[in-house]
Write a structure and sequence with these properties.
- By secondary structure, the chain is mainly beta.
- 6% of the residues lie in helices and 39% in strands.
- The protein contains one helix and 16 strands.
- The strands form three sheets. The protein has a six-stranded parallel beta sheet with strand order 1-4-7-10-13-16, covered by helices on one side. Strands 2-5-8-11-14 form a five-stranded parallel beta sheet, with no helix packed on it. The protein has a five-stranded parallel beta sheet with strand order 3-6-9-12-15.
- The radius of gyration is 15 Å and the shape is globular.
- The protein starts with a helix and ends with a strand.
Length: 171
């Protein structure tokens, strides 16, 4: 994939076992995937070079729509940078927003850099529906408007995940 239109198409047509490889560059827009992989054949979204500094997904939104929404199961995103520096309240959303429509499971963010700037109500990574399960966020760098140890102000959070069986480590 070489541009934002190509990424949108790849995400909307992805199927189990697909690897969406992103060429070096910046992909501007709001992107989502609703097609799922399987345990044997997950869907991968990754940098062609393996270096997260070479690929940046940038949100154009200022509301609650994230830069990248994984509304599926068995999807892994790795080796990319994801930015929502335009004032949006979410950078990456894992899973569905409504427990009544479907459950998402086995979503992975690995070796990603996630950047956000909102100081009132924002989440670098969020997954709030309790029926979601088995999400993994690891080896990621999260850059936000607050510095450690003063990171819990209002509703500004780096990673907010509810549900069962999640793994969050080495971030």
């Amino acid at each position: 994939v070489n541009d934002a239109a190509g990424l949108t198409t790849a995400l909307s047509t992805a199927s189990a076992g697909d690897v969406i490889t992103l060429a070096t560059g910046t992909y501007t827009g709001e992107f989502s995937i609703t097609n799922s992989g399987t345990a044997a054949d997950p869907i991968f979204i990754r940098s062609a070079t393996g270096n997260r500094d070479d690929v940046t997904i940038v949100s154009t939104g200022t509301g609650s729509t994230p830069a990248l929404w994984l509304d599926a199961s068995y999807v892994t995103v790795e080796n990319v940078t994801i930015d929502n520096m335009s004032g949006g309240t979410r950078v990456v959303r894992l899973g569905d927003n409504d427990a009544n429509t479907k459950k998402s499971a086995h979503l992975v963010l690995r070796n990603c850099e996630i950047n956000f700037s909102d100081t009132t109500q924002s989440y670098a990574v969020d997954a709030w529906v309790v029926v979601n399960e088995s999400f993994s966020v690891y080896d990621c760098t999260i850059n936000g408007p607050m510095a450690w140890p003063n990171v819990q102000t209002s509703s500004v959070e780096g990673i907010a995940i509810s549900g069962e069986g999640h793994s969050v480590f080495q971030n």
